[in-house]
Amino acid sequence: MAAGNTYESIATQTLVSNAATVTFSSIPSTYTDLVLVANWKNTGIGNISLVMRYNGDTATNYSITDVYGNGTSALSARANSIPYIYLNFTAPATTYNATYISNVMNYANTTTYKTSLNRSSAANGGTEAIVGLWRSTSAITSITYSTDDNLSSLGAGSIFSLYGIKAA
Amino acid sequence: MASKKLSSDTSLANSYKLSRGVASVARPSAPTIGTATDGGSGNMSVTFTASTLGPTASSFTLTSSSGVTGSGASSPLTLQELAIGTYTYSVYGTNANGNGPSSAASNSVVVASLFAPSGAYDSIATASGAASTITFSSIPATYTHLQIRLFATGTSGDQDVWGRFNSDTGSNYATHRIYGTGAAVAAGANTTSTKIDFFARSNTDTSLAVIDILDYANTSKYKTSRSLYGWDANGSGFVMFSSGLWQNTSAINSITIFPQTGSFAANTHCALYGIKGA
Fold first, then answer.
1. Cβ–Cβ below 8 Å for A5 and B184
2. Which of A124, A132, B66, B263 places its Cα 20 to 30 Å from the Cα of B97?
3. Which residues in chain B have their CB less than 8 angstroms from residue A6's CB?
4. More confidently predicted of B2 and A84
């Protein structure tokens, strides 16, 4: 069996002022999977969602399926042909921080559509898992975070980190 | 304060000994600090210049204001921070007579992320391509936890993906899950089963699964797993959490993963990783 440390930090961005987008560009194709970790501080506009796009694609090439629980009920929902992947869909964030972990596997292949597994936790909103699809066979070279209100709602203090995982 | 005075006195004594030609019993002078940088996840690298005055140091020690230390024979020195924070660094040299005085403090460095300290997450083995069964054998017991990352397509439509540990085909497995289809949410269980059901359906669309097997090498308790799984096809989809149990106290040294029917298709990729504890 081959062995070796294969979980590497690629980049981290910490916002010092509010921003509309955060982008990781020029992502090397040398990893097997990507993991993104985000701690989003909402600027106070309630009921909005953190979203993610690949390679600057703003067309409706994305879709998601979620499962969600808020402590008293659970449900599942879907959104088809949308312009981004929701990272919290049923559980919109309000004024609290929310945390996200996204697994984007086999992101550099040019044969299959790209799928991601995403987990979000908003202290006031509940917990959620979302599977997201990007209907493109292109290798992912950039990832952009924004919010679905198209405003500068990525608050100062938000932290976004990108990691790469190599297989043996 | 006492330690600072002693350090100062020692430095003065060293200088005196140098001037008197007794450098053989003196310690190295303080290095000149360079730049501290975070190579990612608190993996620090600090440059310095050894003093050209006095005796030569045979090794150098890097000390963080966090208390973490590292050592080596030359610049740069490295260490792994263990907590998020803001730190400065200093270096001192050592020879046969002991430790010399420390350099001045470096620039401050903000360590913002420690999600995966270097060396904590290792790739153990992978399996790719069409296959009816994926087996990871001779798994070393040197890690704390295991993680399987599965990118799968199948040849027979929607189906479950099952697993066994150590080739055990007995009725020693159980699984519980909650899942969403995009229209409904449900929960279920399989108990007294002959395989653990990761519920990662290897349908004709790409399925992803992240499966964690915790404390896999201990020999005093049953083994548990957790998985996050999903696929989406723009009009249909499935996302699920599950937990698994293997009622056996043996250390896990092999894992077999197989579809309910048919085979994994050519695009399938499965990787086994080992996660180390502190």
1. no
2. B66
3. 121-123, 273
4. A84
